[in-house]
Amino acid sequence: MSRRGAVIAAVAVACALLVPARAHAQGQLTLTPQQGTEFPDRTFVLTLPNGRPIDPASVSVTENGQPVDGVRVAPLQSLDQAGVVLVIDASDSMHGASIETAFAAARQFAAQRDPRQPLAVVVFNNRATVLLPFTTNGDKITAALATTPQLAQGTHILDAAAQGLSLIGAAHMQSGSVVIMSDGADTGSNETLAKLDATARNERARVYAVGLQSSDFQPQLLQQIADSTGGSYTEASSADQLTAIYHALGAALANQYLLGYRSLQPAAATVDVRVTVAGVSGNAHSSYQTPALSGSAPRSALSTSRFSDFIHSWIGALLVACLGGCLVAFAIISIVQPRSRALRRRVGGFVPEAEHSSSDSSPITDALYEGTERALEGTA
User: Fold this and answer.
1) For the chain, how many structural domains are there in total?
2) For labeling, which of 211, 275, 333, 353 is most exposed (least CB within 10 Å)?
3) N- to C-terminal Cα distance for the chain?
């Protein structure tokens, strides 16, 4: 292929890679929700066209058409949490130029990546083998990709993709991407597509699939994997195209941003999220469902428990009123009674018991005690 043809191919695959299968109508921006975030907090990974770094202030977010305030935007590379796993087919059908081309493209991908971006490498045939766990060490990456692996029978595509996702989960990445390349169909994986999709969502990751055309090539599964996990599928018919695909994909994955905010949406609502970036055409789209309030039916702010419901009923109000009246009466008695008996207690030590017994006390005597008590209180 000529240099001009390679450039055209690179542009074409870049457009395909930067728009996942779920978002073809949304332009070049893509938005992937982070499944580990609990409402009302919302977190997404925003991927931009390659070579287009942005000012975080240029990012605008709406939920159901209403602007969102307090949006936080940070480059994932600055967080060292945007790992990529290269998963390469090492089955017998990849012999000769195919495996050499695949590893050459992987070396170019590694060379152009941001040095802070962790990279891992997995090869697969009848089983998946980790050649390199996540690292940012350039020497270790170069060594892992320097020689091609020994080939063997079998093409366990789903198992290999699952191995890549497990590396992302073990490394606790904020966002992860698996780039899987194969020239054939799956032959005997234990993993299922549904389970792989669930794992990708749980690990906040996407799978990008690259098909290398061959006599045994069947692209359907690779397309399904990419579509279900929010990645993209691209097909190469030559070594030059494969290299261009890896170049464009590497540039896109190196230009991701972590976007977060706190939602003000009500419970049990379907929310449409749209993100635009000043100077970038199109918009990115996602959606989610807010959780329902606990209980069989929504409850108002004034009725959040059975106790609260009882208090606001007429029986509860009457009971509270009676209890309040009793408390007031008790307080009055407690205050008044000691005053009328205080003088008696103070003089009790100087007066014979018989003379101030309550049984012999007359109304005049009681009035005298009480009057004297009030007079003494007035002088205090």
Assistant:
1) 2
2) 353
3) 110
pLDDT tens-digit readout, 148-197: 999 999 999 999 999 999 999 999 887 789 999 998 789 999 999 999 99
Higher local confidence (pLDDT), 330 or 256 = 256
On whether both 214 and 326 belong to a single domain, the answer is no
Helix (H, G, I), strand (E, B) or coil at 15: helix
208-to-66, 181, 218, 328, 349 alpha-carbon distances in Å: 32, 9, 16, 74, 98
Residue 375 clears pLDDT 50, i.e. is over it? yes
| Domain limits for position 372 | 310-378
CA 21, distance to chain mean position in Å, is 21
Tell me if 304 is assigned to some domain: no
Rounded Cα–Cα distance for residues 237 and 249 (Å) = 17
Determine the Cα–Cα distance for residues 133 and 130; give it in Å rounded to an integer.
Answer: 7
Whole-number Å distance between alpha carbons of 3 and 83: 31
| 111 and 152 in a common domain | yes
Instruction: Give the residue carrying structure tokens 């929310």.
Output: 271
Are residues 124 and 246 located together in one domain of the fold? yes
- Vertex 194 angle, CA 192 and 198, to 5°: 115
Q: How far apart are CA 354 and CA 175, in angstroms?
A: 93
Counting beta carbons within 10 angstroms of the beta carbon of residue 266, is it exposed (0 to 12), middle (13 to 18) or buried (19 or more)? exposed
What pLDDT is recorded for position 299?
A: 45
Identify whether 298 is part of a domain. Answer: no
Length of the chain, in residues: 380
Single pTM value for the model: 0.63
* CA nearest to 140, candidates 122, 120, 168: 120
